[in-house]
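// run 5 | inverse folding | seed 20
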């Protein structure tokens, strides 16, 4: 379910208290609420460490809120937005800026050579190789299983992250090492295809081109001819996926709440109001839906994890997406600044310090 769909209605008890009434039990509701921005109608009023001083084009200027509950070392911040992470990284390595949020892996070595500090963190996210189940030939489960058998995920994850066998990251609530994994075995992959060659298109972002080439090579050994398609930017990438224009794609699922139940609900529940918001695969399985829905009413962690494990195994039988790995992530910092690592997707500007 999405982050606000559990809410049936709200009641303001007093200036400091809001009561939420929910449609159904939701044990992760407080996690979800933490990701929702609540602002006064018609006013960008918040309680954070910085105020918006100016917004112009692709630039946002922030100034410190002097009444904030703790002192801020950096008083003014200029944020520049880019549509392409690789281009932003290129400009950063060339000398633009002091900090880059989510610095791409493909530029890590170049950054290290130039003495740029990389702040490492492990968010609860996973890379998936997803399939459009409406398109031939990937609508054939034998093709999807052959692809899973043909990909050496350990080799793929080397230096990039931690291999995952299921759809819940090792850094997320509900992770289990007991999920029914598909092991690397290209010879069985070839037997599944019965000697015929299968071709399909794989959509991948520019910063992951190297990983795409590796996957293409692995699949070729099993009898699959993959054509890589690299869109200009993220806007074109998601336009093609949402328009159903590609057979397969590599996507990073960003788990904002850090909960495995939220991941399965968003990725694999049948698309309907409040559910399946990031189901890009056209996947639907009533058994998976039932298990996913039930987990939000269970408080006992052991029981909850058992349901999540069963749900993952059901989905893995259908294989609408191949789990690849949970990535290592970096922020890039230089020019005498320090930043405290944080395992969520957010960058905490209040932790920014000038090196003494």
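// decoded
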């Amino acid at each position: 379910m999405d982050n606000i769909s559990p809410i049936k209605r709200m009641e303001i008890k007093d200036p400091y208290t809001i009561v939420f009434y929910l449609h159904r039990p939701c044990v992760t509701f407080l996690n979800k609420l933490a990701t929702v921005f609540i602002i006064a109608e018609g006013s960008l009023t918040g309680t954070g460490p910085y105020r918006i001083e100016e917004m112009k084009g692709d630039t946002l200027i922030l100034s410190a809120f002097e009444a904030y509950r703790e002192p801020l070392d950096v008083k003014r911040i200029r944020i520049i937005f880019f549509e392409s992470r690789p281009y932003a990284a290129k400009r950063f390595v060339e000398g633009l800026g002091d900090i880059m949020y989510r610095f791409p892996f493909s530029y890590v070595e170049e950054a290290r050579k130039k003495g740029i500090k990389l702040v490492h963190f492990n968010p609860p996210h996973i890379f998936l190789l997803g399939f459009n189940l409406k398109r031939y030939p990937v609508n054939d489960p034998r093709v999807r299983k052959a692809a899973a058998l043909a990909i050496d995920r350990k080799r793929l994850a080397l230096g990039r992250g931690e291999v995952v066998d299921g759809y819940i990251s090792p850094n997320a609530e509900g992770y289990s090492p007991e999920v029914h994994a598909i092991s690397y075995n290209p010879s069985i992959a070839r037997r599944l295809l019965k000697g015929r060659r299968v071709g399909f298109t794989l959509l991948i972002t520019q910063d992951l081109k190297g990983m795409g080439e590796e996957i293409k090579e692995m699949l070729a050994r099993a009898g699959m001819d993959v054509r890589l398609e690299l869109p200009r930017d993220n806007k074109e990438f998601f336009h093609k996926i949402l328009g159903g224009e590609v057979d397969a794609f590599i996507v990073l699922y960003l788990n904002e709440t850090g909960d495995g139940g939220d991941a399965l609900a968003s990725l694999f529940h049948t698309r309907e109001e409040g559910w399946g918001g990031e189901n890009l695969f056209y996947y639907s399985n009533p058994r998976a839906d039932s298990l996913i829905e039930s987990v939000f009413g269970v408080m006992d962690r052991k029981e909850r994890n058992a349901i999540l494990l069963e749900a993952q195994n059901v989905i893995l039988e259908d294989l609408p997406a191949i789990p690849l790995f949970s990535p290592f992530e970096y922020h890039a910092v230089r020019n005498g600044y320090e930043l405290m690592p944080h395992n969520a997707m957010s960058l905490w500007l209040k932790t920014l310090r000038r090196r003494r």
